[in-house]
Amino acid sequence: MEIKPIKNEVDYQQALDRLELIFDATKGTKKGDELEILTILIDKYENENFPIGMPDPIEAIKFRMEQMGMKQKDLAELIGFKSRVSEILNKKRKLTLEMIRKISISLHIPTDILIQEYIVE
Fold it and tell me: How far apart are CA 87 and CA 20, in angstroms?
């Protein structure tokens, strides 16, 4: 395949089709280099044309807690009282800067996700 910028849906589909054909190419080979370049081009096109917004901060915390097998009491040990955790997870109270720092470090959630605005009910 001739490597060229992906400018439209047709180019995108052709790149995906080619990627599928050479997906198992060995790194450092001609096809491996083509695979690497196609991946970069496809990623760029998808980021520009199919952007994915950042997750809601509270949903990100809940998701990460589930992944880590954490309960509310575990989060309470990190940021304060169990009632406060309940208020935060139910969007009755906002995260403080100190909570954001602790959660970011302990749950490995980027601060740019945690500092986003969200509606408190």
Answer: 47
**Residue 111 in tokens:** 């601060």
Helix (H, G, I), strand (E, B) or coil at 18: helix
Q: Do residues 53 and 60 make contact, with C-beta atoms less than 8 angstroms apart?
A: no
Q: How far apart are CA 16 and CA 67, in angstroms?
A: 31
pLDDT tens sequence across 41-92:
999 999 999 988 899 999 999 999 999 999 999 999 999 899 999 999 999 9
Residue 107 near residue 64, CB atoms below 8 Å? yes
- 24: tokens are 């198992």
Contact 85, 91 (CB under 8 A): no
pTM above 0.70, yes or no: no
